[in-house]
Design a protein that fits this description.
Among the domains are: 90 residues, no CATH class; 158 residues, Nucleotidyltransferase, domain 5 (2-Layer Sandwich). The C terminus is likely disordered. It is of the alpha+beta class and 379 residues long. The protein contains 12 helices and 10 strands. A 5-stranded mixed beta sheet has the order 3-2-1-4-5, with helices on both faces. Strands 9-8-7-6-10 form a 5-stranded antiparallel beta sheet, with no helix packed on it.
Length: 379
């Protein structure tokens, strides 16, 4: 608007748009329009007790560790003193010991890539108890949905136990977790009944099949995806997949917040529909790599050259240096056509040169040369 107010130029809007679109600071601060994002779910496990989700919730200056089984949503919780990897490892072993399989594949626990959980990769104690840590994609806002849903439900139960809020005791936490496991879910059973296969009121055995519970849960998740996408983004438009190559600088749509601009990333590998990027800050390239979808990022064009602009041709008088090896020099311009009057005079002069001395022809030659310059000079 300032340029339009004080300046005038042809195609001014296009020039301003071209410059602003290629500006990295403008791209890091621009707002991304709301778009519909494709949702997906992990493949269902083969049996109950093989897939878990865990995370730490901070509430009233307390650390609460929550572990949930993904099929039955059976949850267990524990108060922690700190978030060191030794404390997290002991909590995982203590809560998962009674729910994991005694034989067969190891139990997989999904967590977020926090420093305390990253230190537990290939931990000898977890491998001894047949427990494996799995991380969600770091740049995915919904990297661990099962644990986040467990946090919401547990906080609701804690508010029912302590309406005034504040710190909770281990007894209050155990009562709230038991009430959470007794809630009837969409499949008509509570988490406690699906886990124990017994009625929680009469303790009678229930005729349940694990395969039926796993298949029913997976179908419900797939059928809920279109409705969830529509509710989060009512518009039908989806983000286009940008054309990104290895070495391009990109920004993430979800990195913008109120306190800082987006960070720059360098594309290091392309595997459609995903790509691997590394954070590029200043002149430093970080070692951590992020696996994201191509539709979650956008490329900032770095070439601001106008395709209609004629490239500058270097003339012979631009520099006194000798031509570089391999450089092609332009041929000199051709001489203009000589008028017939000058050509006939030159021919007569050539005939006289055979019979007279050069001293006798000096004056006519100079006269002809001056006449030729007078004819060639435009008036």
């Amino acid at each position: 608007m300032v340029v339009k107010r004080y300046l005038f130029a042809l195609d001014l809007d296009k020039a301003v748009s071209r410059v602003s679109d290629g500006c990295h600071s403008c791209a890091a601060l621009q707002n991304s329009p709301t778009a519909r994002i494709d949702q997906s779910t992990s493949p269902p496990p083969d049996a109950i007790g093989r897939s878990f989700a865990a995370d730490v919730i901070k509430r009233s200056r307390q650390l609460i560790f929550v572990l949930r089984e993904t099929v039955t949503s059976y949850s267990s919780s524990l108060l922690l003193e700190d978030e060191r990897h030794q404390t997290l490892r002991n909590a995982i072993v203590k809560l998962c010991m009674e729910m994991r399989l005694m034989d067969g594949p190891s139990a997989v626990i999904r967590t977020d890539p926090a420093p305390g959980f990253k230190a537990l990769v290939n931990d000898p104690l977890l491998e001894k108890h047949r427990i494996t840590i799995e991380f969600g994609r770091a740049k995915n806002p919904n990297k661990n949905p099962v644990a986040e849903r467990a946090f919401q439900e547990l906080e609701t139960e804690l508010l029912r136990q302590e309406p005034l809020g504040g710190a909770v005791s281990p007894l209050t936490l155990a009562v709230a977790t038991s009430a959470l496991n007794s809630r009837i879910r969409s499949r008509g059973l509570s988490s406690r009944e699906m886990w124990t296969q017994r009625d929680q009121f009469s303790n009678k055995q229930l005729p349940l099949a694990d395969d039926h519970l796993i298949t029913l849960q997976h179908k419900q998740r797939l059928s809920n995806h279109p409705h969830s996408e529509r509710s989060k983004a009512p518009v039908q438009q989806r983000r286009p997949t940008p054309q990104i190559d290895v070495g391009d600088l990109v920004y993430l749509h979800s990195d913008l917040n109120k306190s800082r601009a987006r960070d720059r990333y360098l594309a290091v590998a392309i595997d459609p529909p995903f790509c691997d990027i590394k954070k590029f800050i200043g002149s430093q390239l970080r070692s951590s790599s992020y696996h994201i979808k191509l539709s979650e990022c956008f490329k900032v064009p770095s070439d601001l050259a106008d395709p209609l602009r004629v490239p500058h041709t270097r003339h012979s008088n631009d520099s006194d240096d000798e031509d570089e090896p391999g450089a092609t020099s332009c041929p000199p311009p051709s001489l203009p056509d000589i008028p017939d009057a000058i050509s006939s005079s030159a021919q007569q002069l050539s005939d006289r040169s055979h019979c007279v001395t050069p001293q006798a022809c000096a004056f006519p030659v100079d006269h002809i040369i001056h006449s030729r310059h007078a004819l060639m000079t435009p008036h």
